[in-house]
Amino acid sequence: MNSFAFHNPTKIIFGEGTVSRLGKEASAYGSKALLVYGGGSIKRTGLHDKVLAQLQEHGIEVFELPGIEPNPRLSTVRKGIDICRENDIPFVLAVGGGSVLDASKAIALGVPYEGSVWDFYEHKATAKAALPLGTVLTLSATGSEMNSASVITNWEERRKLGYLSPLAFPRFSILDPTLTYTVPRDQTAYGAVDMMTHVFEQYFNHTKDTPLQERLCESILKTIVENAPVAQENPNDYAARANLMLCGTYALNGGMISVGMDQDWASHDIEHELSAVYDIAHGAGLSIVYPNWMKYVYRERLDRFAQFAVRVWDIDPSGKTEEELALAGIQATRDFFRSLGAPSTLTEVGIGEDRIEEMAAKSVSFGPLGHFKKLGQEDVAAIYRLSL
């Protein structure tokens, strides 16, 4: 096990009806707020009215930035920064899923910074200050409600890059599972894929003597496998939605499940190029890429992949070699993603091989990807081709 330091300052407020605590929590950060949300589903469900009522009850003047895209655009982030600066707004409130939360983090980081917020994502600058951020989560997936990461798309340059800053942890996050009842079947699938691959990125490593962390990862994976199909078949099943919401939060919150372990993240970088160029859903891209990354690298540590097959997918090890178990676990992962309705190939989502070399080159612009197996441009291109 590696040495580590772990700190997570986000206050989680979990359970049905917890939106009623929003006004009190937000009032600690000033008398104005920028309300950031997506395509309008929070208006159709009535959540927008509840949020406004809470803020107004506590004397908070609200400015709004709707229309955050599924792969949030740098241009929209800049609009939010301008609104905050022009109106001297001290607090950002994100109401939505991971894309809304990521855009809100970028806004919070960008307001105090004199240069372009894109400097952070290109690793040209380090954030020194940020506006406080609160969130109300409506989609279980990214873990952005309790982590310091955000991913933004520069659509003009077709680049999708992430940035981590300890200043970007939300001050509080309200997690009411009933707010995810209206999430459609495909988005439930993509959320499950996203949170599972977050765990994979931490689980597949070469660090020795980490039995607790490994079993924490495996328990989250098994809980997602048990609950995602239930949530798809019965969207109003509170237990299934609550378990998925907590899995998403625990899967990626700065290391709670993986302290002391190395991490990989190559597959996320590979997928970011896909959604930057083709604007596909992040979870859909991961459902295609990740099993093929597994197939490309599994021999780097057969024992971990065999363990994954037995502990997560309950594959009987009797009479099987480690390699046979590893391949069975990879196939079980692919089959589960497919059972949820997530795509398995790039062809299914209308993507061919014409831009593979371009995407592979961009993916390694900051250097080789991953840690489990270092991937260069040729490796990334090979994974894309496996995914066709």
From TrEMBL:
<dbReference type="GO" id="GO:0005829">
    <property type="term" value="C:cytosol"/>
</dbReference>
<dbReference type="GO" id="GO:0046872">
    <property type="term" value="F:metal ion binding"/>
</dbReference>
<dbReference type="GO" id="GO:0008106">
    <property type="term" value="F:alcohol dehydrogenase (NADP+) activity"/>
</dbReference>
<dbReference type="InterPro" id="IPR044731">
    <property type="entry name" value="BDH-like"/>
</dbReference>
<protein>
    <submittedName>
        <fullName>Iron-containing alcohol dehydrogenase</fullName>
    </submittedName>
</protein>
<feature type="domain" description="Fe-containing alcohol dehydrogenase-like C-terminal">
    <location>
        <begin position="188"/>
        <end position="385"/>
    </location>
</feature>
<dbReference type="Pfam" id="PF00465">
    <property type="entry name" value="Fe-ADH"/>
</dbReference>
<dbReference type="GO" id="GO:1990002">
    <property type="term" value="F:methylglyoxal reductase (NADPH) (acetol producing) activity"/>
</dbReference>
<dbReference type="Pfam" id="PF25137">
    <property type="entry name" value="ADH_Fe_C"/>
</dbReference>
<dbReference type="InterPro" id="IPR001670">
    <property type="entry name" value="ADH_Fe/GldA"/>
</dbReference>
<keyword id="KW-0560">Oxidoreductase</keyword>
<dbReference type="InterPro" id="IPR056798">
    <property type="entry name" value="ADH_Fe_C"/>
</dbReference>
<feature type="domain" description="Alcohol dehydrogenase iron-type/glycerol dehydrogenase GldA">
    <location>
        <begin position="9"/>
        <end position="177"/>
    </location>
</feature>
<dbReference type="InterPro" id="IPR018211">
    <property type="entry name" value="ADH_Fe_CS"/>
</dbReference>
<dbReference type="GO" id="GO:1990362">
    <property type="term" value="F:butanol dehydrogenase (NAD+) activity"/>
</dbReference>
